[in-house]
Amino acid sequence: MADATPDEMLLKLLSAWNEADEGARETILDEALAASFTYEDPHAPEPFEGKDGMAGYLSTFLKALPDAVLLPQGAPDVTHGTALARARLDRNGAPFARLIFVGTTENGRLTRVTGFVESE
Questions:
Q1: CA 39, CA 113: separation in Å to the nearest integer?
Q2: Helices 22-32 & 50-64 angle (0-180, nearest 10)
Q3: What's the CA gap between 112 and 106, in Å, rounded?
Q4: I need a surface site. Which of 4, 22, 82, 94 has the fewest CB within 10 A?
Q5: In this predicted model, what pLDDT tens digit does every residue of 22-79 receive, in sequence order?
Q6: Contact present, 120 and 95 (Cβ < 8 Å)
Q7: Residue 120's pLDDT band (boundaries 50, 70, 90)?
Q8: How many CB atoms lie within 10 A of CB 63?
Q9: Dist. CA 71–CA 92, nearest whole Å
């Protein structure tokens, strides 16, 4: 996917938040993440590395919030190899939090994503 754009890869990763099937999530992560990948957000105790770290984080998220749905809000903004996406997290169909994700790509894969969370 070397031709993939930063916005495509960031939206692909965000789709993993809503994927209940572990195998399908793994496929999304394989397609979106570079071999050298770092993720951080205020709910992660510290930044973590790699596809396995992201897979574990998503599994924990889905177990803790099984009623949550992550909804990207419009097209991401892109500059060079970086995309910024806004999203809303709903729980039981009601807005719960607003989020911003900033993802950096290299060779069509995400190398770093940082998430910011605000209460709704």
A1: 5
A2: 140
A3: 9
A4: 94
A5: 999 999 999 999 999 999 999 888 999 999 999 999 999 999 999 999 999 999 999 9
A6: yes
A7: low
A8: 8
A9: 13
Rounded distance, CA 75 to CA 18, Å? 18
For residues 115 and 97, the answer to whether their CB atoms sit within 8 Å is no
Residue labelled with tokens 């930063």 = 6
* Single-letter amino acid code for the residue at 99: L
Domains and CATH numbers, the chain: 6-97+110-119 (3.10.450.50)
Q: Quick count: other Cβ atoms within 10 Å of Cβ 10?
A: 26
Helix (H, G, I), strand (E, B) or coil at 37: strand
Q: How confident is the model at residue 118 (pLDDT cuts 50, 70, 90)?
A: confident
Taking the complete model, does pTM exceed 0.90, yes or no? yes
